[in-house]
Amino acid sequence: MTPSPIIDNLEQLANPFTQFDHIVSPLQTQIKLLEEVDYKRDLQLALCFIYSYNGSKATFNSYRREVERLILWSWFVNESPTSSLRRDQVEEFIHFCVSPPEDWIGTKNVARYKNHMGQRVPNKEWRPFVSHISKVEFRNGENPKSSQFSLSQAAIRAIFSILSSYYGFLMQEEAISQNPVALIRQKSKFVKKEITRRQVRRISNLQWDYVIETAEMLAEQDPNMHERTLFIMNALLGMYLRISELVADERSAPVMGDFIKDADGHWWFKVLSKGNKERLVSVSDEMLTALTRYRRFRDLPDLPTVAEMTPVIPKNRGKGAMTSSRQVRNIVQFCFDSAYQRMCEDGMKTDAEDLRVATVHWLRHTGISEDVKVRPKEHVREDAGHASMATTDRYIDTEYRERHASAKKKALRPV
Questions:
Q1: What is the pLDDT of residue 399?
Q2: Which of 85, 106, 193, 322 has the smallest number of CB atoms closer than 10 Å to its CB?
Q3: CATH 1.10.443.10 domain span(s) along the chain
Q4: d(Cα 320, Cα 338) in Å, to the nearest integer?
Q5: Which residues of 146-165 are buried (b: 16+ CB within 10 A; e: fewer)?
Q6: What are the coiled-coil residue ranges (predicted)?
Q7: 205-398 CATH
């Protein structure tokens, strides 16, 4: 069976706690199983569980993806409601996710539903799984193939985590008596044990010099377009920001008033980070200088005022704050590509290679990696918003440097 989507986007989804009949009515013509009480109740519980995460669109999408995959497999492959699955059947589903049939795999991200004659209808091109290729492969003219689909370790961990939460919710609703995911004893069959510490992906100091010089050159050539670019690049590295902490979304809209001066004259930037937790990021003198330059370009006073509602990152066209994380990615990628080209022209092609695969998040990693060399790691942890010191410790390379130095002179022919 080629699957169709069941759960629409958050902005199109009615509240399942109060408007479930409104949601299920059009689905019943699409899915005959919903005429049966068990399947109807199964969908209602799933929707209520997913809708509980409507405070964050990204979190909602993640939970919807995993639960919808489970529903599609359980209903149409296993032919049972998700609430009746046993431990061995959940394991079978995870095996299915690791290697799904090709007609369940797409080669591009497409909308789940389309508007047709005033109605929301399933998009026939949508698939539960999507095959991806690397940035370098894409630039070399390669296209994704469903036969090359693979599920990352992070994706497998997400399946376990989200489905365990889902079945925990079903237990609380007294729909089941045991959590079948928690009963799986050998998760190591699916999830590999990682090495002690994964290498942090970052760009080198030389690469950053070229990247920020490129942004400065762009700002000089076309300030109307690229003064914003220069500020974004400085903010992502200098304050370790995630994209979600820089653009406006349903949770927050960063404004200039989020730059705060305390009683000692020190500046901080207030952000809403993962888990809806607010944190204060210390603003360095150079970051404050970058902010001042950016504000002067925008005909604003040098420094923000209390409760100033001016968007930190405005749209280039139209009014209001930038809401597209993709646009930020494109801005950063343009700087990376331009810097790569400049390095190649200067005879440093080998040194430039990482810029071909680098992502926006590498700037956060780079900023943290540099700061943890010279600042107390407790301070870096607070600025970065890490949940534990163990996360910050990943950025400390001293042990790796010493370990490699001791091995550097090893002979292949011992004396």
A1: 59
A2: 193
A3: 205-398
A4: 28
A5: beebebeeeebebbbebbbb
A6: none
A7: 1.10.443.10
